[in-house]
């Protein structure tokens, strides 16, 4: 009976939920894919071949029981599919929206390899949990027992929140500290609404608060409260602070007015989307409206910047990347979405210098005293250097090489630097010498237990891995919760002896 409902990949083609027309979606910050209707989700789930060794599952960082919940969906048993799906994933509807499925679960789907087109796993995962929210099946945690021990979690991104959820389920008292005024980490202030609408994150934050997780927001650890104070207050501590130091450019006029960091730009846009008043957006500094925009970088952050600039009404948006399309780190699906929306990619190109003009105000200042007031020019163009791909480096990746004499000026009113992120120097910032870091500055933590060099202190997510993915932060957070519980029960046993 079950198999009759499945294995339909031979007769039913692959379909994604409908994508909104590029001209229409470029006008707003809503998600670009519509919902699967129930019948379509059932039909698409029935394409799964239920193969004996599900490679999709082994390539999902959470090892989701994908074939199981696809079968339950195909059989119309959506509530059971939801229960199965949320056993392994704290935020299935978020992963369904923003995981790079082409590199993870769907990229390893067996029917894709036989030429039939992958099962649309991410879209079905999203459908199942969105339906669960609509039907009221998603309810706050009510722990079976309350335990006295408390855990302080620093960072309310997916890593910290996934751990908070698991620990609260076990009955521990959980406090989450974050320097921002809203929880969610990069899910709220980094990733734009057209990939992940803000209410989807906010309802998860509320669910955790309703379950008794205490949020202490606007609390910058190291400034407003010390790390030692948090350690003193709690029986265990989890560090989940992400990576935020922007990589920079060492070129002429690197700090020209109108050259901005990607995360400042995206945070302002997300805040406006959430209804906040942002002076730097209102006065145009972090607003692409009417401007010729150049974004530098080829990762997912760059893709989010170019598509945000289009939605803000930029006059033109160009993306400079020093390698070619095949060698960019960003998802090909996002490049296609960006191109449909009017972004122009300038491959094999790198910025050599920024040129600028001195504005009237600065000129007046110059006439009186340049040094006193400063002579920062306003960006007017990017000197573009053309590159070719040379010999592979030690990692096997072809290194870009400069083509002499091929430079040209690209006019620009706003330049957004999306060159990646590095960890802040936490031991120095927080004054904790004993917290060991790697040579890249990420926190050293055991691969499985997530224990750091300090007893009772654990670490997860980007601050350990370097810039990574939401799904990996969730996995780390869930695993660390188990280790913290083990640590606390060991500590309780010792205290009782
Ligand atoms: C623009 C952008 C787009 C992305 N798109 C995707 C995508 O499509 N799919 C995907 O899977 N991943 C994406 N990522 C990556 C993903 O967002 C991260 O890998 C993930 O959020 C890491 O989770 P985390 O919990 O480790 O840290 P974060 O999400 O960074 O959360 C860390 C939290 O710690 C807080 N914090 C930091 N320092 C302190 C302090 N001293 N005191 C108190 N609080 C502090 C921060 O305010 C933040 O809320 C994207 C990243 C960016 C920047
Ligand atoms: S969590 Fe991500 S990788 Fe895993 S099944 Fe869902 S979309 Fe695929």
Keywords summarizing the entry:
38% helix, FAD/NAD(P)-binding domain, 497 residues, 15% strand, single chain, Fumarate Reductase Iron-sulfur Protein, Chain B, domain 2, 5-stranded parallel sheet, alpha/beta, 16 strands, binds iron/sulfur cluster
Topology, element by element:
Layout: H1 2-5, H2 22-25, H3 38-45, H4 55-59, H5 66-74, H6 78-88, H7 92-98, H8 110-113, H9 121-135, E1 150-154, H10 158-169, E2 173-177, H11 186-189, H12 198-210, E3 214-216, H13 227-233, E4 236-239, E5 245-246, E6 259-261, H14 262-273, H15 279-282, E7 292-296, H16 300-311, E8 316-320, H17 332-340, E9 344-346, E10 349-357, H18 360-373, E11 378-392, E12 398-402, E13 408-411, E14 414-417, E15 421-422, H19 426-430, E16 457-459, H20 462-465, H21 470-496
Parallel strand pairs: 1-2, 1-4, 2-3, 4-16, 6-14, 7-8, 7-14, 8-9
Antiparallel strand pairs: 5-15, 10-11, 11-12, 11-13
Helix pairs in contact: 3-5, 3-9, 5-6, 5-9, 6-9, 7-9, 10-21, 14-16, 16-17
Bound molecules: flavin-adenine dinucleotide and iron/sulfur cluster.
Residues 98-99, 154-160, 177-180, 185-187, 190-191, 195, 220-222, 240-242, 266, 300-301, 304, 461-462, 468-471, 473 line the site of flavin-adenine dinucleotide.
